[in-house]
Every structure is written in C-alpha cells, then in structure tokens.
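call fold(seq) -> tokens
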Amino acid sequence: MSADTKKRVLIVANELSPYLEFTDFAQILNKLAIKTFDAGLEVRVIMPRFGIINERRHRLHEVVRLSGINVIIDKDDYPLIIKVASLPNARLQVYFMDNDDYFKRKSVFRDDQDNFFEDNAERMIFFCKSALETVKKFGWPPHVIHCHGWMTSLIPLYLKTAYKKEPVFSYSKTIFTAQQPQFSEILNDQFTRKAMISNEIKEKDLEVFKEGTNMALTLGASKYADVVVFGEDNLDPQIVEEVKPSRYKKVLKYEDSWKEDITPLLDLYKSLTES
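ret:
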C-alpha cells in the first residue's frame, strides 16, 4: 500500500489503556488501535490530557510545531496545548489536548467531594473543537473518525455542520460508541448555546442534545454519526430503541469476544475506508 493510497483512522476518546480506563472499552481501543496499525492503516489517537495522567511515566511531551492554536468558546479564547506520546508496544502516536483552565485539575469529571464539575459542558466543547482543529493543523484527512466516550459526543454533529466544508474532512465517516450513561447530572443550562461554535450550527441541530443528560449526548451523537457501535451488552432500552439499524444507519452490536478478538471492529474500519 503506497503512501498516497494509505487509509487513515482517527480515534478520539475519553479513555485509552494504559493512560486512563473507565470501562472495558479502554483496553479494546488499545488493541484496536494497534491491530489497525498492524493491518497497514495509518492511525492516530486524540484524547484529553486529564490532570491525573502522569506525563513523566507515559513520556508525554509538548508538540511545539502544533502550538499557537486558540480555541474560542462563547467569545473567550483558550490556548490549546498539544502533547504527544507513543502508545506502548506500538509505533503510533497519541495526542493529548491540554489547557490549564480545563485539564490541569488532578481529577477527571468530579471534584474531591464527588461533585460533577460545573464546567464539564465547556470542557467537552473545548475538547471536541480542539480535536478537529488539531486534525486541520495536521493536514491529515481521516477516512474514519471513531468517537468514543461522552466527551466526544459533539464531534459527529460538528462534522455535519461547522466543519462540513473543510477539505480535510470531506470523506470522513464517523463512528460513535454508545454506552451506558456514566453520569446522572445535567450539564449546565448554557451548554447548547455555547455548543453553537459556528453560524453553520442552528438551534434545531442541537434539539436532541438540549436536555443535557448523558443519555441526550448519546442519542445526539448517534443521530449524527454514520455508524453506531454498541460498546456494552445490555444497553439502556432507550438507546437500543432510538438507534435502530436502517438503510441510513449501520449498527454494530457489542460482542464480549472483542476483548480477545477485535476483528469485527477492524473489519468495520476497513469497510468504511473503502466505501
């Protein structure tokens, strides 16, 4: 496979083993990234640089050539710091989106009193926009963008609206991993307004997200993704009901065997790069 014809897969995730693990899918994504690379596809991974990720142990370092990106959220500028590490036992790179306001704290989604951070909505918007701006900066057009975790929920929407005219995404197909809700709180009431990062996004586009629950994020991401992967067995019936397979939407049901054999997911990647 020549460099010109190489297929490119971008994984954008909340979690990835060994950096951070919330669910079993963190290890599945690790195996999937490595197997995809071994199959001859180009792979890059983007995730948040949560403060609990040990930079020294995992050998993160800042990517100076990608510096200078400012991410605007609700007219405020937030400097984006991009760090990178090599995935252990693999020759592929993981890029970490960092910002002192949103990711310096030494916890993930909750404070030390177990309170859900009030700015988790803004952190999600920052991360989703940062990931897409970083790909633009790469000049690296992905054939497949696999979004995993609730913090990636806005990416399928953004690709269909704010970024739909960007050449780097002109043939990108999106996958979203649907899972059980991981928080019971509601995002702050400014969420959908701040999520409108471009004039290309209309209020009606965010209708499905407006309740600000984890379920609403899952249903919204699933609506705009090209393919939905059920990331767990026995998903909430509402997700199963809403995300029915149709001629417009491909659904890949969870298999416990993925923990050992991720071939069905790799085959999904391959099929999307060829369509």
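The longest strand covers residues 42-48.
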